Amino acid sequence: MNRFKRILYVSEPRSAQDACIARAVSLAQNNQAQLRIIEVHREVTAGIGMPPGGPISADLTATLIANRRQVLEDSVAPYREHIDLDIEVMIGRRFIEVIRAVLREGHDLVMKPAEDPSWFDRLFGSDDMHLLRECPCPLWLLKPDEKPNYSCILAAVDLDPYETDSEDERLSRQILELAASLALSDFAELHLVHVWDAPAAEFAAMWADNPEAFRDRFIEGDYTRHKAGIDHLKLELRKHVGDEAYSYLSPRVHMPKGRTEKEIPALANELKADLVVMGTVGRTGVPGLFIGNTAEAVLYQLQSAVLAIKPVGFVSPVTID
After folding, report:
1. Would 195 disulfide with which of 186, 250, 260, 293, CB 3.0-4.6 Å?
2. In 3-state terms, what secondary structure has residue 87?
3. What is the bridge-based pairing of β-strands 139-142 and 305-309?
């Protein structure tokens, strides 16, 4: 199934990215999608302490653009016979120009080699974190040693067992459908993880005649509700991909009890997952709502590639103007 129509690949000149470009080209071919590759740089100044602008700065910037474009052309030369792709080197602030390109050109996926941010970058916001927070379409952060095909894909979903057709459930369906599509394309194992907990059990048990037995029943009831929600997601996935594809996928379900920021990275490491597909926190119609602390804590611990998805209706605070 063709999930994507317009893919935007963001070049990361500080990283080895041959394998990442190959993955983007392969995905575009498999989806019969348009592929656009951009690289964004700041304007070159004439010297230390000199403001941008002026003929010298313009010449230096033009030289940078020409040189970087040639590097990118050399990188994609082996694929030119097989796919029609577009290249542009741009000037500006990278995450802003990337989001503007998405808004202007209607891209439905951004692919980019992940940065290796310093402590300072993490504190104040790297381009990757800005994109995770503010890019309106799915963002695929790749590793320098990308495999041509993944062996294991982990879909991390969340849901409210007390509310049907909630925003969390709709986002979880998106995550699972996208993870399943990629697993089918790569002939990869598909794992589904949902971390749950029953934080109210201890408090509620305080008022019971037999606190320990009440707490156990409370936790068991919560688990049953969460499992019913996951079973419903699996049923929706079966309807979406069909019985034959679902039987081939046979998604493995993991429901660890505990803290999301601990359990998801631990499971991804245990499974040696190549890709984790997960959602970022947002609220429909609220522009610029930051990614949640839990999601950030998970992302910083993952060693795999990450495909992050926004809720339907997310509005980026970045505008075209």
Report:
1. 260
2. strand
3. antiparallel
